[in-house]
Design brief:
About 65% of the residues lie in helices and about 10% in strands. A hairpin with a 6-residue loop joins strand 3 and strand 4 (about 240-245). The protein has helices at about 1-25, 30-35, 40-80, 85-110, 110-120, 125-130, 130-145, 160-170, 175-190, 195, 215-225, 245-250, 260-265, 280-290, 310-315, and strands spanning about 200, 205-210, 225-230, 240-245, 270-275, 290-295, 300-305. The chain is elongated and about 105 Å long. About 25% of the residues are buried. The strands form 2 sheets. It has a 4-stranded mixed beta sheet with strand order 1-7-6-5. The chain has a 3-stranded mixed beta sheet with strand order 2-3-4. It has 3 domains: about 1-145, no CATH class; about 165-190, no CATH class; about 195-315, CBS-domain. The protein has 15 helices and 7 strands. The chain is of the alpha/beta class. The two termini are about 60 Å apart. Helix 3 runs antiparallel to helix 4 (about 85-110).
Length: about 325
């Protein structure tokens, strides 16, 4: 009976240590510093983790290993004297521990940063009980960091960490679903290329440079777009871009028949490779005051067009 209690107690204790370790791992530096500004018990716990994070992790690790060792050792003693039965008992303990640890870690994670801090404050007696055993491990970790310097922090938060924060914020009701979707779009925005958002060549409304303005005006009225590529000989040779407002100005001024489409277009057009990331295209459009870019493929042919509106719709 004592061995059975040792197995169950060891498994539960190991799961608690594992959940606490997961709670520490989920609290990034930015989250800890944000909570450390408070003067309540959670603020003090955050400050403790900032100052003694390495020692806390070492104690939790030692506690988990020790509790799991007690459970596994008790299971092997309780099993039949056969080697295979003892091996099966140890594997069974590992499996049950994994289930317990997953449930405990999930319960902590679902409560967000404040829930993790409360949990860590609650299990502090278990953590401090491992301090004498964990001290050598903490010293070894400090020595290792001195011998193998860590790379300098870039200051950038990883994409996975940001996605995790967005998900937690949505679950906690910090922001609405549409705001969470917008934040996720901003993360994906950095990796999106022109090819993914462009209007393909077959759907582009373009004009040959010799098209009479009367015909251009009719097609502009039918299509309703505000900008059009203008090409010479073929669509692969874009000369510039026609702005519908320039055509309207031509109408207001009396529609001089001597004026040609070439005299109304704006040159040169903005050409962008189809593999160029759209955040880079957006910056150039803002700097050069372009609203339309001609997307070219690896052979220099026109693959389509991308507009400022297309890019902004990605956010």
């Amino acid at each position: 009976m004592e061995l059975a209690f040792a197995i169950v107690g060891g498994l539960i204790t190991a799961a608690v240590y594992s959940a606490a370790n997961g709670g520490v791992a989920s609290l990034g530096d930015g989250v800890l510093h944000a909570h450390a500004e408070g003067n309540d018990s959670l603020g003090r716990e955050a400050k403790r983790l900032i100052e003694r994070g390495r020692a806390v992790r070492a104690r939790l690790l030692v506690g988990r290993v020790l509790a799991l060792s007690v459970a596994a050792g008790s299971a092997t003693l309780l099993a039949f004297p056969s080697f295979w039965w003892r091996l099966a008992a140890a594997l069974g303990v590992a499996l049950v521990y994994g289930m317990f640890a997953h449930v405990a870690a999930t319960a902590v994670a679902q409560r967000g940063a404040r829930g993790a801090l409360r949990f860590l404050r609650g299990v502090r007696p278990l953590e401090l009980a491992m301090a004498p055993l964990a001290a050598p491990l903490g010293a070894l970790g400090a020595l290792t960091e001195r011998l193998i310097p860590r790379p300098r922090e870039s200051g950038e938060v990883g994409t996975l960490a940001l996605e995790h924060l967005i998900e937690r914020g949505e679950e906690a009701g910090t922001f609405a679903e549409e705001h969470a979707d917008m934040l996720r779009s901003v993360l994906e925005f950095r990796d999106t290329v022109a090819r993914e958002v462009m209007v393909p060549r077959t759907q582009v409304e373009a004009f040959a440079i010799g098209t009479p303005l009367a015909e251009v005006a009719q097609r502009v009225e039918e299509s309703g777009h505000s900008r059009y590529p203008v090409f010479r000989d073929s669509v692969d040779h874009v000369e510039g871009v026609l702005y519908a407002k320039d055509l309207f100005r031509w109408f207001r001024e009396g529609g001089n028949e001597a004026e040609t489409l070439e005299s109304l277009i704006r040159k040169p057009a903005l050409f962008v490779p189809e593999t160029r990331k759209i955040d880079s295209i957006l910056r150039e459009m803002q700097q050069r005051r372009f609203h339309l870019g001609v997307v070219v493929d690896e052979f220099g042919g026109v693959a389509g067009i991308v507009t400022l509106e297309d890019i902004l719709e990605e956010i």
